[in-house]
Design the sequence.
C-alpha cells in the first residue's frame, strides 16, 4: 500500500510505526505540513498516519498551516481513507470530525497506565494491546469524542483512544515512540517532567521493549484493516 506519514518536526519520524509499515512492504511517504506548501490529496493514499508535535491542535494563530492539515484530514474522513492519529494527530482527527479540543485537566508526561474499554477489547486495532498497559505519554491537551466515535481506551486523566466507524483511529499515547525519541524529548522538555531525564530513561529501559512490540502489533493491525 501507499502510506502517508504526516510528521510535525524534522527529523522526527514515525518511529516503530514507519518501521513496521516499511518492513511489511508498504511504501511510506512523509509530509511535513509546516514546511511544504503543496498539500497532497488524501485519496492518493491507501492509509494515513498522523503523528505528534510540540504545538497544540488549536494554535492556528502561531501555526497557520494547522488549518490546512485539518482540512486534509476532513477530506480523508469524507473519502473513507483509513487514518491513524497519535497524540496531536488524534486531536487533529477529532477536530476535523467536529469535536472540541483543548487543555486537559491534568497533563500526562511519562509512563501512565491505560485501560481498554469494552469496545476496545473488540476493536480490530486496539485489541492488540493488553487490557491494561503502561503507555508512554506526552500531552497537555485532550479531545472530546466526535459525534460518531466510540471510545476505545482511557486513563484517569484523559480519553486515550477512539475510532470513527473503524476507518479512523486516534490514540493519545505514543505507541510509536523509540528510546532514542524519548531521550531527545526528555532532554528538550526536562522542565515538563516530574522527575529527572535520567529517572525517566531508567524507567523507560524496563518498559520500552514490550512497549515497542505492542506498538508494532497495533500499527500492523491498522495497516491490515486498512488493506
Sequence:
Amino acid at each position: 500500500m501507499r502510506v502517508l506519514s504526516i510528521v510535525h518536526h524534522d527529523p522526527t519520524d514515525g518511529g516503530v510505526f514507519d518501521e513496521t509499515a516499511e518492513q511489511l512492504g508498504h511504501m511510506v511517504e512523509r509530509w511535513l505540513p509546516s514546511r511544504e506548501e503543496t498539500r497532497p490529496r488524501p485519496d492518493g493514499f491507501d492509509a494515513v498516519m498522523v503523528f505528534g508535535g510540540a504545538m497544540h491542535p488549536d494554535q492556528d494563530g502561531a501555526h497557520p498551516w494547522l488549518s490546512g492539515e485539518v482540512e486534509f484530514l476532513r477530506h480523508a474522513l469524507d473519502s473513507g481513507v483509513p487514518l491513524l492519529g497519535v497524540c496531536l494527530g488524534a486531536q487533529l482527527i477529532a477536530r476535523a470530525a467536529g469535536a472540541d479540543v483543548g487543555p486537559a485537566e491534568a497533563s500526562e508526561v511519562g509512563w501512565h497506565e491505560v485501560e481498554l474499554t469494552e469496545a476496545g477489547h473488540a476493536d480490530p486495532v486496539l485489541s492488540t494491546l493488553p487490557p491494561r498497559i503502561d503507555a508512554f505519554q506526552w500531552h497537555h491537551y485532550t479531545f472530546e469524542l466526535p459525534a460518531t466515535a466510540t471510545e476505545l481506551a482511557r486513563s484517569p486523566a484523559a480519553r486515550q483512544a477512539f475510532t470513527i466507524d473503524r476507518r479512523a483511529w486516534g490514540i493519545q499515547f505514543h505507541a510509536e515512540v523509540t528510546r532514542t525519541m524519548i531521550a531527545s524529548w526528555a532532554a528538550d522538555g526536562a522542565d515538563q517532567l516530574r522527575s529527572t531525564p535520567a529517572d525517566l530513561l531508567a524507567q523507560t529501559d524496563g518498559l520500552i521493549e514490550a512497549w515497542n512490540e505492542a506498538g508494532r502489533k497495533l500499527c500492523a493491525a491498522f495497516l491490515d484493516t486498512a488493506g
Notes: The radius of gyration is 16 Å. The mean pLDDT is 96. DSSP finds six helices and nine strands in the chain. Residues 2-178+211-226 form a domain with the Rossmann fold fold (CATH 3.40.50.880).
